[in-house]
Amino acid sequence: MLIGKQSWAFPNKPVIAATGVSGGPFEANGNLAEDFDILHDDLWMGEESYEKAHRVLMEEAAQTALEKGNIQKEDVQFFIAGDLINQITPTSLAARTIQLPYFGIFGACSTSMEGLALASFIINYQGAKYILTGASSHNAAAEKQFRYPTEYGGQKPPTAQWTVTGGGAALLRANENEKGVIVTTSATIGKVIDMGLTDPFNMGGAMAPAAVDTIMAHFKDTNRDPSYYDLIVTGDLARIGRETTLELLQKNGLNIERDKFQDCGLMIYKEDQPVQAGASGAGCSAAVLYGHLLNQMKQGVYKKILVVATGALLSPLTFQQGESIPCIAHAVSIEMDE
Questions:
Q1: Whole-model pTM above 0.85?
Q2: pLDDT digits (tens, 9 = 90+) for 163-193
Q3: Is the CA virtual torsion 103, 104, 105, 111 positive or negative?
Q4: What is the phi-psi region of residue 203: left when phi exceeds 0, alpha when psi lies from -120 to 50, beta otherwise?
Q5: Residues 53, 58, 63: CA angle, nearest 5 degrees
Q6: Range of the domain at 205
């Protein structure tokens, strides 16, 4: 059901039945290591390239979600997922292994909530009984594509962010009038916002206006205010993007308590890990949501959260051509249905 100009309501409340989260060695030393299902001790993961290792992350996350959900692959109708690498090939290669009808999507680091929104819409209107959705990223693969190979040892400014090596997947299913389950209740689909920034080492600053636009649209469309949620969390704005977003929201007349407004890119790593402004990557919000935040909801820490994943829609080619960075954000509200 369309509400407002750019939001969907899900009256049938699709259930997040199970999740799977896989990560790399840097994440194993991070702040949320206990919330991962699988952690690797090296970036190669037994493969001969970083891109093939990237594929492994998505395969593991999806397979773990199926196993935890006690669902056979044959019972699932669709797989909706994506990543950052050229033509989302790691996810497509994972789909080759998973062998489910496949929607490959690209929203850069907003892919996790793009997939969750689409999966929720399809299930809400009886288009499927079960859907797997997820997103992933690999630090070394992303650095090689967008900046410099890690072996080069290039210096980065304080505004730069660390791409998460991780994959997160969720198994959604139809709701059978249950209580005590985690459900999706609405989604707001973002517009492309471009404020003319061109620095690929300041993703947080570039993406902040898109986050603001989607958050403002969500509260207008749903006729809610921030007090409705226990937590509003962005995907990977990190330190600079979070501060910019809070400032812009305030200028637009929307005041959100600082403690209630968090960012996955500031949660996943420890203070002493050298990640400059914080974390990013399509796997960032996917791993933090499908691991840590849903675990927190199961423990009763949060009952209602709004997840706003942000994405920078640039490519190496557009950057080389001097193009500015178009950005987008998608939001999904997730609640414990009691």
A1: yes
A2: 999 999 999 999 998 889 999 999 999 999 9
A3: positive
A4: alpha
A5: 120
A6: 185-337
